[in-house]
Amino acid sequence: MVRRLGELEDAVMTRVWEWNRPVTVREVLEDLQQERSIAYTTVMTVMDNLYQKGWLRREAEGRAYRYEAVSNRAAYSAALMNEAWSLSDNPAAALVAFFGMMSAEQREALRDAIRVVQLDGPDETQGAPGR
Fold first, then answer.
1. Is the four-CA dihedral 107, 108, 111, 117 of positive or negative sign?
2. What is the DSSP letter of 59?
3. Cβ 77 vs Cβ 5: under 8 Å
4. Rounded to whole angstroms, what are the CA distances from 53 to 2, 16, 18, 22, 99?
5. Tens digit of pLDDT for each residue in 101-110?
6. Among 8, 21, 65, 66, who pairs with 58 as Cys (CB 3.0-4.6 Å)?
């Protein structure tokens, strides 16, 4: 089960995803402090929690750690969507409702994604009897 990130977890992960490199608690702290008052130990605890939950991996560097994302934001979003969809008692109706909420740009992105999946998937006509 994928759990939605909390507000501070999301703020930390957003930076890790955007920077796309190993980061220290100090780097994340200094960036977060531009928006809010927050303690080093709070950021350290959040990043340790994200490590324990499997969102971050870490490598020791002296007395500290460098953290990096295990996956990207797209994979996180996809996992959330899949979880929500799997909980529906009527998945087709849930998809219709979801598609109805999409903007024109989101629908175009969906069309592009379907084309990619269809291009990457096996040709369903190969090996079919009578074809």
1. negative
2. E
3. no
4. 10, 15, 20, 18, 31
5. 999 999 999 9
6. 65
Strand partners, 61: 64
**Quick one: 25 exposed, middle or buried, by C-beta within 10 A (0-12, 13-18, 19+)?**
buried
Non-local (6+) Cβ contacts of 21 within 8 A are 68
Q: How many CB atoms lie within 10 A of CB 126?
A: 7
Strand 56-61, strand 64-69: pairing: antiparallel
56 DSSP assignment: E
DSSP reduced 3-state for 64: strand
- The pLDDT value recorded for residue 71 is 93
Tokens, residue 13: 């992960």
Residue 5 DSSP label? P
